[in-house]
Amino acid sequence: MKRIGVLAAFAFLIAAPASAPASAEVAASSAAGMTSRNVAEVKASPAETWAALVQPARYWSPDHSWSGSSANMTLDPRAGGCFCEALPASGGSVRHAEVIYADPGNQLRLSGAFGPLQSEALTGTLTVKLTAIEGGTRIEWTYVVGGYAGFDLVQLAPAVDGVMGEQLQRLSAVLGTL
Question: 14 Cβ partners below 8 Å, 6+ apart?
Fold first, then answer.
């Protein structure tokens, strides 16, 4: 993801895939922040879902990486662990988020402003909650962003929600949707 205008960075969402998580919404937005909530149900146990969740290289969209390849993404699923990305072309790296809560098979919480939000004075918290249901797992993917930005967060909220929803959709495809 090259440094371009924030709204332009999310403009591709106009052509987002037709399929989406079971439910997706911008739950709240204001000049101070926003909340994106996406939910999906998959044909995998919470343990199997956790195993896939903590391997972002399996599902994260390369369109939402700095290197252009999700294969460069790793996640260390323990408190203080890094959701990081190697930048092989330059030998650099990116810290997308830090793990602040990890309860295998139940919940993962990350702290970080993703993508172009990183360049602003924003804080983001992504909570992924796994709940056993008949035939699989319900995944609740909630991203809360707050702070100061040099752009309109209300205007950007649907695009951020689309990016978060796409990642859940891709994880669901790996696991099989109910």
Answer: none
Which domains are present in the chain? 34-175 (3.30.530.20)
Kindly report the number of other CB atoms within 10 A of residue 13's CB atom. Answer: 15
| pTM for the model | 0.89
> Contact 142/24 with Cβ under 8 angstroms?
no
The answer to whether residues 166 and 61 touch, using CB atoms and an 8 Å cutoff, is yes
Q: Return d(Cα 100, Cα 126) in angstroms, integer.
A: 10
Residues 6 or more apart in contact with residue 85 via CB below 8 angstroms: 65, 66, 67, 72, 73, 74, 93, 94, 96
Average pLDDT across each block of 10 residues of the chain; the chain has 178 residues. List them in order: 46 42 85 96 98 98 97 98 98 98 98 95 98 98 97 95 97 97
